[in-house]
Amino acid sequence: MRSVALCSARGAPGVTTTALLVASHLDSVMVEADLSGGVVAVRYGLGREPGLVTLAAANPHEPGGWLDHAQNAGGIPVLVGPDAAETAESLWRTAGERIVGVLGRSDGTVVVDVGRMWRRPRVLDVAEVVLVLARPNAEELVAASHAVATLKATNLGHRGVRVGVVLVGDGTYRPTEIGDSLGAPVLAHLPDDPTTAAHLRDGGTTSRSLARSRLSRAVAGLADIIDQPAAQVPDVVTV
Q1: pTM score of the predicted model
Q2: Domains of the chain as residue ranges with CATH
Q3: CA dihedral defined by 11, 114, 29, 60, rounded to 10 degrees?
């Protein structure tokens, strides 16, 4: 299995929206692993089950068994997480190792929505790429710098995990300056696209009708970068 994790350190730069679009472009499954509680079930009118709770209970050993616990969220298969922070924390505390084990022996690609990373989640144990989303303002960039440092201080670096930064919207600082300051490459600079973001927040589909939107095109470029070896990462993708 290949795992790409998206997170933020402060603010609301659109981690869930971006994760849905990345999953769409990679033809993959999204895993909702936000310890603050998930939002996908509410957005798309889905049930709390099946999802991560039933996956943990079933503990499937077949490589494709995890897909039985995904629901359709606007055209994307999603393993929904609990919507309450207390329940989400309890699930990962008691069954996190089991969930990570299932994902680790599964086939295909997963995009993990970590949400705001106020604590390093166990699901990062199987990540190959970790993307820290931030708006290019001082407040969010300072928080992002701490998140990058924390990620690099763990065993992620020893496993060869790629840690990158994704900027969202306009700001004072240039991507090259930010990458040097944070010690991680800026892999993409996504535009503010309130129409597309609102469409996905309101439970809209990730269909081809969004393909021409600025946000979708920029995320498509990001997905291409994720698929490339680290040595072949191009300059920042903007649209």
Answers
A1: 0.91
A2: 2-226 (3.40.50.300)
A3: -160
